[in-house]
Amino acid sequence: MRYAIIGAGLAGLTCAHDIRQHDRDATIEVFEAAERIGGKLFTVPFESGPTDLGAEAFLNRRTDAIDFFNSLGLADHLVYPSGLRSLVYSGGHLQTLPAGGAMGIPGDSRDFEELLGDEACARIDAESEAEPIDWEVGQDARVGELVRQRYGNEVVDRVVSALLGGVYSCTADDLGMRATIPQLAEALDELAAAGEKVTLSGAIQKMNSRRNTITKSSAPSPIFATFRGGYAELYDTLAESSGAQIFVDAFISGVNRNSDGTFSLKGAGEGNYDRLVLATPAPTTAVLLKDIAPEAAQKLQAIELASSAVVGMKFDSDEGLPQNSGVLVAADEPEMHAKAFTLSSRKWPHLAERGGAVVRASFGRFGDEALVRAEEDELVDMALDDLQKTTGFDGRAAGLSEIYVQRWFGGIPRFDKNHFDVVAAVREELSTLDGVEVTGAWAAGVGVPNVIADARDAAQRITHAD
Ligand SMILES: Cc1cc2nc3c(=O)[nH]c(=O)nc-3n(C[C@H](O)[C@H](O)[C@H](O)COP(=O)(O)OP(=O)(O)OC[C@H]3O[C@@H](n4cnc5c(N)ncnc54)[C@H](O)[C@@H]3O)c2cc1C
After folding, report:
1. Domain Amine oxidase spans what residues (predicted)?
2. Which of 66, 169, 280 has the most ligand 1 atoms within 8 A of CB, as the residue to mutate?
3. Which site in 192, 277, 394, 406 is 20 to 30 Å from 47, CA atoms measured?
4. Ligand 1: which residue has its CA nearest to atom 50?
5. Is residue 46 part of a domain?
6. Which of 377, 397, 413 is the last residue of a domain?
7. Which residues pair with 155 in a beta bridge?
8. CB neighbour list of residue 301: distance below 8 Å, 6 or more residues apart
C-alpha cells in the first residue's frame, strides 16, 4: 500500500509513525513545503543548548500522550517545570495571577481585588443574583462576549484575554468557549440540564469543586512537561521510526483523484497513491480538497488562522529577572507591544542549568499582523524594552548573547464559536470519500496531546479502510 502524507508537522509525522505500526510493509511518503520538518514544533540549536521557539510544553496530565512518548523510548527525556507562578502586568505594574477559576474567569472576587478594582469585584460577586444566562445544553458562546456581559470588561481585558492570548494568539472576544474552555461550557450545560439557575459564577464554582475533588483523590503531578533536548527529540524520533521517505521543500498545490480511486499530487510526488493524509493547516487543507471534496473544502474555509512572533533571547546574566515562570500582559495595557514573556530559565530547571537567562517574548494576536511583520531589529528592541518596563530586567546590560526571531504566520487556528461543529461537518462530508484522512491542530484542538491523538486515530482509520 502506498501512502502520501502532506505536511511534516506533529500530525503528519505522528500519522506516518502509526501507519508504519499498523502496516509494516507500507510505502510512506511525506511531503513538506518548508525546508525542515516539525511545523510549529521548532527547536533552534542555540549555542547554549536546544531552545524551542514554537510549542515549548505539553499537558502532562494526558496519559495517552505520555504512553505514546514512552513507546517511542522518550520517557527519560521528559522534564518538568519549576512550579513558579506567573505574573500579569496590568495598570503599569506586576501582579500575581490569581489561582483558581477557568482561564482567569473567577467564581468570586477573592484575590482579584488588586487586579480588577472594587467596582468590577462587586459586579462579579453580584452576578449570581442577576437574571440567569439563557443557556441551552450544547450551545456555544464567545468567551469575551459572555464574560463581558456577566462580569464587565475588566476581567476580560486584564486577565482572560491575556491568558487565552498566550495559548491561542487571540483575544477572548475571538474565541469560542466550547473549543477553548470546554469544562466551562459543560458546567453551564449541567446547570441548564438540572434546571438550576445558570450563572457564570455558578458554573465556575461547579468546575472548581470538581477540580478540588480530583486533586484531592489523585497524587499531585506537574501539569506540564517538555523534552530535555526540545521538541526536536520528538519530531526527529517520529520521522526516523516511521521509516517514511520525507521530502522537504516539497509544496503540494493540489490533489487529483484518478478513475481507479488512487490519488496523484500536484507539485511533488510521482505516480499514484492508494491512500492520502492531509496534515496541513485548515486553509491549505481546503485548497487540497477543492477538486476531490468541494463541499468539505468549502466548509473548511470558515476556519481562519492567527499569527504570532516569538523572540528567543539568551542573556549572560539572570540578575534581576523575577523568580516567576512568566509575565502575561493585560490586553488593555497601553504602550505595550509584547503580549507575554516566558521566563524560560525560571520556568524550566533544565534551562536554568545553562547559566544566565533564557526568555521568550511573544507578539501578535488574531486580526493584527502588524507586529508579526515588524523588522527583526524592531521586534528585538520591543522585546527588550517591554521586558525592562514590565520586570525591571535590563536585557542589554545583562548581555544579550543569542537571539532568534521566529514568525508564525497562521501559526494557530482560530478556535471560534462552534469550531468543532465545522470540524464535524467537514468530517461528515469526507466520510463518503474512501482513502482520505484529514488531521492537524484545527481538527484536534491546539495542544500537542490533542494533535497526537487525532493523528493516531487518522492512521488507525486509514490503514483499516476498505
Ligand atoms: C508559537 C506557538 C506556541 C505553541 N505552544 C504550544 C505549547 O506550549 N504546548 C502545546 O501543546 N501546543 C503549543 N502550540 C500548538 C502546537 O504547536 C500545534 O498545535 C501543533 O504543533 C500543530 O501541529 P500540526 O501538525 O497540526 O500543524 P503544523 O505544525 O502547522 O504542520 C503542518 C505542516 O504542513 C506543512 N504544509 C502546509 N502547507 C503545505 C503544502 N501545501 N504542501 C506541503 N506541506 C505543507 C507546513 O509547512 C507544516 O510543516 C504552539 C503553537 C505555536 C505556533
Report:
1. 10-462
2. 280
3. 394
4. 55
5. no
6. 413
7. none
8. 283, 286
How does DSSP assign 128-165, residue by residue? GGSPPP---TT---BHHHHHHHHH-HHHIIIIIHHHHH
Greatest C-alpha distance within the chain:
70
Residue 266 lies in a domain: yes
- pLDDT digit string (tens) for 329-363? 999 999 999 999 999 999 999 999 999 999 999 99
How many distinct structural domains can be found in the chain?
3
* Position in ligand 1 atom list of the atom nearest CA 31: 43
Low-confidence ranges of the chain (pLDDT < 70): 212-220, 466
Q: Is 224 exposed, middle or buried (0-12, 13-18, 19+ CB in 10 A)?
A: middle
Q: Given the CA of residue 59, which atom of ligand 1 is nearest to it? A: 11
Strands 78-79 and 224-227, by their bridges, are: antiparallel
Q: Does residue 176's CB lie within 6 angstroms of at least one atom of ligand 1?
A: no
Taking the centre of ligand 1 as the mean of its atom positions, its distance from the CA of residue 313, in whole angstroms, is 22
Distance of CA 454 from the midpoint of ligand 1 (Å): 14
**Do residues 357 and 324 lie in contact, with contact meaning Cβ atoms separated by under 8 Å?**
no
Structural domain containing residue 355 = 305-413
Residues 299 and 318 placed together within one structural domain of the fold: no
Altogether, the residues listed in the chain come to a count of 466
Is the CB of residue 345 below 6 angstroms from any atom belonging to ligand 1? no
Instruction: Answer left, alpha or beta for residue 103, where phi above 0 means left and psi between -120 and 50 means alpha.
Output: left
